[in-house]
Amino acid sequence: MTKKTAVLSILIFLVGFAALAAATPEIEAYYRVIRSIKYENSDQLVEMVKDDKIIAPIKVKAIQRMIEIYTADKEKAAAKAPAYVDSISYALKNSREDNTRMRHYTVRTEACFALSNFDGTAQASAALDGIKNGVLEEKNVEVLGSCVNALSRCKQSGELASQKLLEMLDVQLDREVLSETDIKITIAILGALSRQNYPPAFVPLLRVLQSGYPEKVKLDAQRGLDNILAKP
User: Fold this and answer.
1) Roughly what angle, to the nearest 10 degrees, separates helices 81-94 and 56-72?
2) What burial class does residue 102 get, using C-beta atoms within 10 Å of its C-beta: 0-12 exposed, 13-18 middle, 19+ buried?
3) How far is 114 from 66, CA to CA, in rounded Å?
4) Per-residue confidence at 164, pLDDT binned at 50, 70, 90?
5) What is the overall mean pLDDT for the chain?
6) Are 160 and 154 in contact (CB under 8 A)?
7) What are phi and psi of 108, to 5 degrees?
């Protein structure tokens, strides 16, 4: 049995055991397996994160380990960075069951912050797209805030991050019927844009003022406009 097959076999057994025994995230048995994975066999982490049958606590740890490996030596890990971004973006988009057993909101939160680690790299555009697409499908307010904050943390790719925020705002402004979730998404986007202080956001912010959004949203847009106008 190869080392790669052995790692997967152990994980499959532990995932099954965790599910049957209603295991909590604190159980260290399968976490030790994940911590043992190095750069050379980090493809295992990619597979875990993209596997829809892997439970949330393990998937979160796998994402964390992947980012540990990546940030430890970005130059060395650059070759595998596209696969890392692809798998984390997949988890963000497809981990959508939020209940006592699945708790996928933890995966989505972790995925957003993980993708922000690719700020300023060749994978920045793909990573920011992953966050953007995740936000536009998000229903959980806490995850939404975390993901928008992760997007606004991208300082080296600040202009690109701001462009993604504007793309998100355009989608929200084109909606004919507004839900409570749409309002929360737009508030989060406006908060991030206000922090970015991005001049090209001026006209989109004006569009918010003439939109059908409630007054509290328009006040956030006005603050963003004021920040841009105050910029030297």
Assistant:
1) 150
2) middle
3) 9
4) very high
5) 87
6) yes
7) -65, -40
